[in-house]
Design goal:
By secondary structure, the protein is mainly alpha-helical. 76% of the residues lie in helices and 0% in strands.
Length: 71
């Protein structure tokens, strides 16, 4: 939602929720996981990037081509 807001230079539904709710929760969860399970921050960032990659690719496909699915 945040990327789409920048791409369209307009408000996209869900953009405020993602900034106000999801980003702080992600930071809290990532810090907690790193502390409680002794995970290195770099490893947590890499894992998050790998997990987010399919969603990012799907979003780019929808925004750039107007397609709903990659295949």
């Amino acid at each position: 939602h945040i990327a789409a807001s920048f791409m369209f230079a307009a408000y996209v539904p869900g953009a405020i929720t993602s900034v106000v709710l999801y980003l702080p929760f992600f930071v809290f969860a990532a810090v907690t996981i790193c502390r409680e399970f002794e995970v290195q921050p770099r490893a947590a960032i890499i894992a998050a990037a790998i997990g987010a990659a399919p969603m990012l690719l799907q979003g780019i496909s929808v925004l750039a081509d107007g397609r709903r699915l990659l295949w």
